[in-house]
Amino acid sequence: MKISEALGNIDDAYLSEALGPAPKPKNRRSFKFAALVACLVLAIGSVIFPRIVNAPEKFTPISYEEACEYKPCAEIIPLLLSDGYTLDGEIGISSKNVISAEFSADDGSANLSVTFADSGYFGDVIRNIIIIEGGSCRYYADFGDSVVMYSLDTVDFAELEKIYRTFATARPEKGAL
Amino acid sequence: MEDREIIELYFSRDESAISETDEKYGALCRKIIKNILSSDRDAEECLNDLYLSIWNKIPPTVPDNFRNYICRSARNAALSKLRKNSALKRGGEYEISIEELGELSQTDFPPYSALEEEINAFLKLLDPPTRWVFVRRYWFFDSIKEISALSGFGESKVKQTLKRTREKLGKYLIERGVKL
């Protein structure tokens, strides 16, 4: 059997989905880059080493739809996908309901790791501020009951702006830096 | 006309079933067939064969989803005609998209439905926009340009998405013991 034949027998659900309307990229909101730079200057000025209190966990793969049953995954993942990122590999969930997903920028300029967890999972790490360590950076976005950790393998202002945008779009009331 | 009503026409052996089918889904079927077959003549013949085949199959077949059923039938009819003619549409989207699959397209997988199950399981893991792009390319054989226009993604994003998804599919199948 050739793979082209096997592809011909995909589930009706995926066929219906493909016959339906095309997914449209969400409108991008414009943000003042100066605010982000100011935030970065503050962050660089402070030597901050976040403490992650939880030991590494084993993650079980889940589907995109299953992940989207958890907030704020349902808000953040589609925003990242529409904003120039592609999901790499599988989305994973741990026994503590921590959800992890890896993304890469479509132009290959950066890899992004995103972790969704309950508010207490990351301990007393400072939220809503960009933390730069060496050639990488992290951002702990406060969603009230939960925290989303963005970990970028580069310090790229354009990528940082994208990440900040997803957070500000998902939680506009928390958007002010 | 609703799909259910068209199916009722087939069941009552009313020949207007074919014209109603053509009116509602003719353009969609032509697009699928034209992406696979080389000539307009072949495509038109194939479409006529398709309508005859559907006329002969309904009844007794009662499709759950008539649109999907007719799309599958159109794809199968065109691929069957393509094999029969042994005449690939040079530079056509079918040929190009199959070539893109590279090593995957050359591999003869065992003739068991597990591969189909693995592919469906793989598709389930994809996010909807990626899955939409992948299915439009490798099921409907739409061109990159068409997918880009339909989705609003840039052509480079579509190409990048397809490339990554092909790589993921290859890796996924290897992890599940499928030898490439």
Account of the protein in words:
Helices cover 31% and strands 25% of the residues of chain A. The radius of gyration of chain A is 18 Å and the shape is globular. Chain A is built from 6 helices and 7 strands; from the N terminus they run H-H-H-E-H-H-E-E-E-E-E-E-H. In chain A, helix 5 (73-82) packs across helix 6. Mean pLDDT of chain A is 76; it is low at 49-54. Chain A has helices at residues 3-7, 12-19, 33-45, 64-67, 73-82, 157-170, and strands spanning 60-62, 85-93, 99-105, 111-118, 130-133, 136-142, 146-152. Chain A has 177 residues and is α+β, with helices and mostly antiparallel strands. Chain A has a 7-stranded antiparallel beta sheet with strand order 1-2-3-4-7-6-5. Chain B has 180 residues and is an all-alpha fold. Chain B is 73% helix and 0% strand. Chain B is built from 10 helices and no strands. Chains A and B meet through helix 1, helix 2, helix 5 and strand 2 of A and helix 4, helix 7, helix 8 and helix 10 of B.
